[in-house]
Hints:
Elements: H1 3-17, E1 19-21, H2 22-29, H3 33-45, E2 49-52, E3 55-58, E4 82-86, E5 91-94, H4 97-107, E6 111-117, E7 124-126, E8 131-134, E9 147-150, H5 153-163, E10 166-168, H6 170-185
Antiparallel strand pairs: 1-3, 2-3, 4-5, 4-6, 6-7, 8-9, 8-10
Helix pairs in contact: 2-3, 4-6
Amino acid sequence: xxxxxxxxxxxxLIRDKKYMKISDLSQALGVSEMTIHRDxxxxxxxxxxxxxxxxxxxAQDSIYDKNTCIYCNRxxxxxxxxxxxxxxxxxxIACCAHCxxxxxxxxxxxxxxxxxxxxxKQTTISAPLASYVMDTSLDxxxxxxxxxxxxxxxxxxxxxxxxGGHIYSFQQAIEVISEKMEDYNV
Length: 186
């Protein structure tokens, strides 16, 4: 199959299924995962699909403005964005991990997957596998209390040595940010 034919087939598959794993696309098309990554690059660049952890999802129109946070309505910066893929394949975008964690807690079992970006490398990471830093002296100009995400725990440790703060796992971060917000609202 030629690249143009694969691209057309990928568009059809993603429109039908809304979400697909790279490995499933590779198997369906009989090509390597690297070939799939090359094939989907133009679809990502044009905004037809978004990359998720281990796959791709259809970038759907939604009832909210995709340029503003689903939780606080701030403008979204890609550097701090937190994406939540729901069980119905809809995608919600929060401006930062602070809002993403709070929204994740609200949605509970309706969350299929959540992804964010590593603060240092700007690579996509699975939110439940990330390390979360709070109470740091570095202000990124987003929601407070600020939450920064790291793929590697040792990178989070080095960051905390330089800028202060505390490191939390995913579940700990959800609990801590929820408690902090309750304290702010009292």
